[in-house]
Amino acid sequence: MSSYNELSVEELCELKNGLEDKYNKFKSMGLSLDMSRGKPGGIQLNENNKLLDEVCSDSDFYSENGWDVRNYGLPYGIPECQRLFAEIMGVDEKNVVVCGNSSLNIMFDYISQCMTHGTGGCEPWMKQGKVKFLCPVPGYDRHFRILEYFGIEMINIPLLDDGPDMDMIESYVVDSSVKGMICVPKYSNPTGITFSDETVRRIAALKPAAGDFRILWDNAYIVHDLSESPDSLLEIFSECKKHNSEDMIIEVISSSKISYPGAGVAAVAASDSNINEIKKRIAVQTIGPDKINQIRHVRFFGSADGVYAHMKKLAKHMAPRFELVLKIFDEELSGKGIAEWTNPNGGYFINLKVLPGCAGRTVSLCADVGVKLTGAGAAFPYGKDPEDAYIRIAPSYPSEDELQSAMEVLCVCVRLAAVEKILEKREKS
Amino acid sequence: MSSYNELSVEELCELKNGLEDKYNKFKSMGLSLDMSRGKPGGIQLNENNKLLDEVCSDSDFYSENGWDVRNYGLPYGIPECQRLFAEIMGVDEKNVVVCGNSSLNIMFDYISQCMTHGTGGCEPWMKQGKVKFLCPVPGYDRHFRILEYFGIEMINIPLLDDGPDMDMIESYVVDSSVKGMICVPKYSNPTGITFSDETVRRIAALKPAAGDFRILWDNAYIVHDLSESPDSLLEIFSECKKHNSEDMIIEVISSSKISYPGAGVAAVAASDSNINEIKKRIAVQTIGPDKINQIRHVRFFGSADGVYAHMKKLAKHMAPRFELVLKIFDEELSGKGIAEWTNPNGGYFINLKVLPGCAGRTVSLCADVGVKLTGAGAAFPYGKDPEDAYIRIAPSYPSEDELQSAMEVLCVCVRLAAVEKILEKREKS
Fold first, then answer.
1. Which of A161, A265, A338, B272 lies 20 to 30 Å (CA to CA) from residue A282?
2. Number of domains chain A is built from
3. Residue B170 and residue B285 in one domain
């Protein structure tokens, strides 16, 4: 099949009629499918349920340091859980604090801490006037919402196949009002790319003008491999040590997509200086995290190896969903010059790039026949995709049958929106 | 026995020698007792353990609105848990958000929100210059540490038997830089008093100059009755409605001292306007709280009545401890003119007031023989008790035998410090 752009107006109109017929059939089917968020499906969650049996009424309630996990105290987490997360991240456990159930919460609180108290001996960000952050795009909508909430100006940095455009980043960090970057370095949300070794090295070697420049290194998908040849990400702190730049990095991870998204455990790793600032705040903010849930996780997983083995089980649910999406995209969208998509080795998302100006229309067409996707623009600061071209596909939640239906709908909508756009252009010219 | 003040120097010296002998005996006993924090004891925690069996691998995981509690979502808590806390607080469930495990965390985050975003349409507190808070004293050390962390100036307000000195509060709130008050209205930490109806009514009727005046109403001991004739606290929002002043109140509670201090559930209640501000922040801060733990609590307690029945069980562990402390104080300290103490109907603490200038010495004498008490001054802003007279007694954690030993040590130390102080004064005069 030839590219849509090469078709005549007549051929395009004919194509449009055919697509509209298909689309109207979907309309009559009364679909109701929600693919808007990266939520694991129920079957996947069932893999974790034995975790809940790890602590019950007749359990031993003591952490390895003899602390009753039911009681107050240990504001930085139980030592065995600090060690588990340290092992996964490849950092020293003294640099890890284990918190509640949400790494997003850790990032929000960290930004808030910088706003009110500053970091690295610098003035609080709230007292520094305009503060800016670099945002590799497309990226994670909830990251951008944190920055927007605090009035931090966001600067789009194109996310390439090997990570953010480092030339651009290097040119921006000479500005001392640029205070940081927020990113997902492995299996990035939503494109699924992993920062190359070269990118990680260039990040570690940055010399920002701001002494309080901080990179929120959201390693959400650190163990979320789906392929037999998974990506590998250089451990950032080791690279930073070569440049004495460890203070730039605030790394977070969570078990949200390992155990339970609602009832997992999240942790932060940072340099000695940063972790001390974080600990100083946490000691005032709370008497301690939910340590019963921490010990539940340690007992269930045992070690990082236990986590890796568990992730292989989860991959059995995720990988077929990714394959299904890619198969349908290949069948329905390839060769038409109207869409590109990523084929990640892990993570939670596939990114679909449609013709410029077509993402919003495509998502809206889908919504009108009962298929809810992540909002167009969501992957960009302020919800504004300058190209209106990116659509995040989250295959994790629906059943495979539902996913198949949703993708068929999506492909018809992508094609219909593309034909409409091309016809519109022809009319104008 | 006559008051120490009436004794001659000779009699005082003789008394001192006797007390020193006793004290030295304690020294040789190698005690190691920690009474520094208001932690429930292990036996008391065991009363809650069936809670852990409420959700296990073969459980139903759906909240009443059909949400899988293991998954993301419901940032304001599951509806049945909102309702449970609303019932306990006597407020409308639409005004309740159920969060993580810590009401302290809720208060910290709320103050932080006021610092960065302000409230009630006013400028962020960080942009308003000096901001002040009224602090009924003695009070809860962790409250004061939050305010200190944010650089909020704390003003001591004497806590009387029926609540804070309202005349003083009324005179302070005409200053628009006075932005709030933080208090424990029922079974106050550490004196155990409950605000009288008259006090609650005067609080509700306040007309602060600051439109963003906020009272953190920490109802930590709302269901923590120990006596057959418990205190009752007027529901504050109902009183505020009469004056259209609901926006002044941010009420928090938690199950920390109902279920587990480390793994309970905490909630906040606030006016429509305030709860919307809080929700707006929480929707950015997290994808959702630990809803598995919320449903665990709802299933275990069932309703507010279930909580009240459970508290009666816990009171069986707590009440004898309170009685023991009071019995020893009565035997060892009464009639000597050197100490006064409270006899609360509930809560977690007894407040011991020793001779001015003697609290620090007493706590230090205790520490030197292995009995760790809450630091002298802890119940005051900046850790500074202007009279150096208040000692917080936390009888909940040690066994009754340990508590007996600790109180015997404490009484000897109180007496020794008093004798030293009186002798010192005599020498000076």
1. B272
2. 2
3. yes
